[in-house]
Amino acid sequence: MIVKKFEAPTETEAVLKAQEELGSNAVVLNVKTLKQRGIFRLFKKDVVEITAALEENEFIGNMNARKQGSKSDDKNAGVQQKQEPKSSFSAVADEKIDIINDSAAIEEKLDSLHDMLRQQIKRESTPRKDIADAYEELSATNEALQADDGRESDARNGQNNNFKFLQLIYNKLIDNEVDEKYANMLIGEVSSSIKKESNIDSLLSGVYQKLILKLGEPARLEPGNKPKVVLFIGPTGVGKTTTIAKLASYYKLEKQCKVAFMTADTYRIAAVEQLNTYASIIACPVNVIYSADEVESCLAELEEYDLIFVDTAGRSHKDEEQMLELLELRNAIAGLSDKFELECYLTLSATTKYKDLINITEMYKDIPDYRIIFTKLDETCALGNILNIRLKTGAQLSYTTSGQNVPNDIELINEQSIAKQLLGG
Ligand SMILES: Nc1nc2c(ncn2[C@@H]2O[C@H](COP(=O)(O)OP(=O)(O)OP(=O)(O)O)[C@@H](O)[C@H]2O)c(=O)[nH]1
Ligand SMILES: [Mg+2]
User: Fold this and answer.
1) How much is the pTM?
2) Which atom of ligand 1 is nearest to the CA of 401?
3) Is 239 in the pocket of ligand 1 (CB under 6 A)?
4) Which of 40, 160, 174, 211 gives the lowest tally of CB atoms within 10 Å of its CB?
5) 399 and 270, same domain (yes or no)
6) Is 202 in the pocket of ligand 1 (CB under 6 A)?
7) Is 249 touching ligand 1 by the criterion CB < 6 Å?
8) Tens of pLDDT, residues 116-141
9) Å from CA of 376 to ligand 2 middle
10) Same domain, 158 and 290
């Protein structure tokens, strides 16, 4: 892989520079703003530095195409061109660095990440060693490939293999619908810490650990010292009521908590009936409220309960009036903080397009301190949006649901399993 940094006043200009030099297939691995320091900052503007990369074979192809182009130009002009000194890129290309050409072999190895990471999680006491064990084979393959060609495995070959490997991980993240911005950030962070002695094991371990850190510790619903009001908000049909039923059943039946329901979803009779059905199965009271004014009196009746789950009507994130009503409801509950704790859960479907999720979270940005539940994981195979939304909102991830069965199809978010899927799924 050819890796090079380009500087320009804006990101777009830096990307154009990279494309001019490396070709249109160049991939941006990292974007950084370089601040001017000292006295220069008064006179010079900050510049954007991008790290761009391109596969050797594509680079060689581009170089050949350019050579062809310039040869025919020369012929046409009838001018004998003096041989230009080789740029560092063509020198690299000419050397035909002995990288792992068989990217399919590495892809296959990446696919087997599941097993490797499962082993790592099982033996958490020595995670680094497990990764090395699992990837020993891949490293051996690399060495064999280099030895086969009769070439020495020098430091540059090692570096190129590392960048090639990072490129494959980058592709995996994109396949799994991680936003390009976050994939670049992640790979950029790891690539900037590459050392001479880095190898595939340490890179994979680095990316995996960064993913886990970025996904963060999952936030579990816990009964508090005061009665806790657990408010569910989110777009229509994402599974708010079903998720409430799953959590309420768990806390009532497994944890012996005193559980009650309150619903503000009076837009549809079926919605109240749906909650009543679940409530009657687990024998919990249901209070219905029609506006935020009724919150205080309604909660006064539920003071002796540990958890009061509040269902709300699905809101179109495009309807600002509905969003205001929701905010009023939330604020009315928060206003009773001397008697009740409040925990708010924004419920999102993992099947929603990222662009729509961005709009949805924009509309809920006035609701402070919400946690996120992702539903319908069973209906998608790309989990990139979980990472995207976590990084976009900074909100803690909480639960995931993966089916319609109450109470079974819910679990505390498993950041290790999500990281595994993002890398290998
Ligand atoms: N496949 C799948 N379906 C789910 C999941 N969670 C909920 N559902 C289904 O999604 C549909 C909508 O669920 P609800 O719980 O009514 O959704 P809601 O957000 O309360 O909907 P509104 O109140 O209309 O806004 C139902 O058919 C649920 O069975 C899940 O994790 N996976
Ligand atoms: Mg509902």
Assistant:
1) 0.69
2) 31
3) yes
4) 40
5) yes
6) no
7) no
8) 554 544 444 333 333 334 344 445 54
9) 15
10) no
